[in-house]
Design goal:
33% helix, 9 helices, six-stranded mixed beta sheet, 2 domains, three-stranded antiparallel beta sheet, alpha/beta, 295 residues, Rossmann fold, 27% strand
């Protein structure tokens, strides 16, 4: 795959991602040898536990050290390492078009993150799928496990035009019902919904055995207001307008944004999901390091 052909995976970014990897904490399921634990046992490298030897088992699997200590015939069991299947859930609602102080609009920034993560996953012989949603899921592209297979996913990122309201909870419930195999879900969104709704969707995925990461993408101007005086604010997703005196609500606004962030962070921690706040002033590669590791 020639990275130069893709807006959100320029060659200079792809080159810098070559020694990065994505891993998971919870066991995943799959058939290829990879970097991740499987819930199934097999002949591999990481010891899990013992089981009693039964007639028909190959004698060379017996742990003779345990036999010498306990006079019991037991066989070691191992955690099988397997490939990871990940889904990038990308919010394409109207509010994602916002761009004030960041390097890119939230939409483009999230698309760079998605492209980088998909590229890293494919390079490590894992697979990545893409789900685009606003008030409902609009498009789903099945997981691709090769660099060439990412072509339609990367092209889909370039075709996004932010529109509509955000319905994160509905999107998370929808994919939780569809995806049966344990997988990694990475939500890229500005999370401008009730945190309780978002967390209900996260808990649904967690309950089904999936691992979840939220990459909460915000422009710095959304976290602390920079304008002064009397201003007219327009809500991007509804078009509603409000006339306000900035000085009267600046501190209250910043406190409410922080409360929103803290609620999401704590809610994710409570169900073992990862939460990362992403400031669009950060270089994309730096933001990717929030979720990847160096090999």
């Amino acid at each position: 795959m020639k990275a130069a052909a893709y807006k959100f995976l320029p060659p200079e970014l792809a080159d810098r991602l070559g020694n990065l990897g994505v891993s998971v904490r919870r066991p995943v399921e799959g058939g290829l040898q990879g970097l991740h634990q499987s819930p199934h046992h097999g002949a591999s490298v990481e010891f899990s536990d013992y089981r009693e030897y039964v007639r028909g088992d190959p004698p060379h699997l017996i742990d003779w050290a345990v036999f010498a200590r306990s006079d019991r015939y037991v066989i070691r069991r191992y955690q099988e390492e397997t490939n990871l299947r990940a889904f990038l859930l990308l919010d394409t609602s109207e509010s994602m078009a916002f761009h004030e102080q960041g390097l890119h609009s939230k939409m483009d920034y999230a698309a760079f993150l998605a492209a980088g993560l998909m590229y890293i996953l494919a390079r490590q012989s894992d697979s990545a799928g893409l789900v685009l949603f606003s008030d409902k899921v609009h498009r789903q592209l099945p997981p691709a496990g090769s660099l060439e297979g990412l072509r339609p996913l990367l092209r889909a990122l370039e075709a996004i035009r932010p529109a509509g309201r955000s319905g994160i909870e509905a999107a998370l419930h929808a994919v939780a019902e569809q995806v049966k195999r344990r997988s990694l879900f990475l939500l890229l969104s500005d999370c401008l919904c009730d945190p309780a709704e978002i967390l209900r969707g996260v808990r649904h995925l967690h309950h089904n055995g999936h691992e979840v990461t939220i990459l909460h993408v915000l422009d710095p101007a959304e976290m602390r207001l920079t304008f002064t005086g009397l201003v007219e604010l327009k809500e991007l997703e509804t078009g509603a307008k409000l006339l306000l005196q900035t000085e009267e609500f600046r501190d209250a606004y910043a406190a409410e944004v922080q409360r929103h962030i803290d609620t999401l962070r704590k809610g994710c921690a409570d169900c073992l999901a990862e939460y990362h706040l992403v400031d669009t002033r950060q270089p994309v590669e730096e933001a990717l390091h929030l979720r990847v590791r160096r090999e």
